[in-house]
Amino acid sequence: MQKWIMSGLFIVACGLAVVLMFSLPGKEEVAQENKPQMPEVTLSAEQAETIVANNCISCHGDQLQGNVGPNLQKIGAELSAEQLYGIITKGNGNMPSFKDKLKEEEIANVALWLAEKK
């Protein structure tokens, strides 16, 4: 009787494994979710400065000198616009995600603006 129960459990476990194998996302899909694609925008420094003033200075300081968050005055020498876009979109460590607060184009504009700070 125990052999039948163990065999049945084994078959159910194998079936579940097969279902999960075909329904879970693949590596490429996970990579796409983890790396947001930056939309093409034309840099508007004035608009970027306004967005930063309204959303970023409480953590990064009014001159981007750092406060709770890191200094961003020369962040463009360390990170590309695409990398900055990903961090602003998804968040990073103590940095919150802004994907639900700002439009993709606004985030891209800020990323381009910050990438020029070298």
From TrEMBL:
<feature type="domain" description="Cytochrome c">
    <location>
        <begin position="43"/>
        <end position="118"/>
    </location>
</feature>
<keyword id="KW-0349">Heme</keyword>
<dbReference type="InterPro" id="IPR012218">
    <property type="entry name" value="Cyt_c_BACSU-c550-type"/>
</dbReference>
<dbReference type="InterPro" id="IPR008168">
    <property type="entry name" value="Cyt_C_IC"/>
</dbReference>
<dbReference type="InterPro" id="IPR009056">
    <property type="entry name" value="Cyt_c-like_dom"/>
</dbReference>
<dbReference type="Pfam" id="PF13442">
    <property type="entry name" value="Cytochrome_CBB3"/>
</dbReference>
<dbReference type="InterPro" id="IPR051811">
    <property type="entry name" value="Cytochrome_c550/c551-like"/>
</dbReference>
<keyword id="KW-0249">Electron transport</keyword>
<dbReference type="InterPro" id="IPR036909">
    <property type="entry name" value="Cyt_c-like_dom_sf"/>
</dbReference>
<keyword id="KW-0408">Iron</keyword>
<keyword id="KW-0479">Metal-binding</keyword>
<keyword id="KW-0813">Transport</keyword>
<protein>
    <submittedName>
        <fullName>Cytochrome c</fullName>
    </submittedName>
</protein>
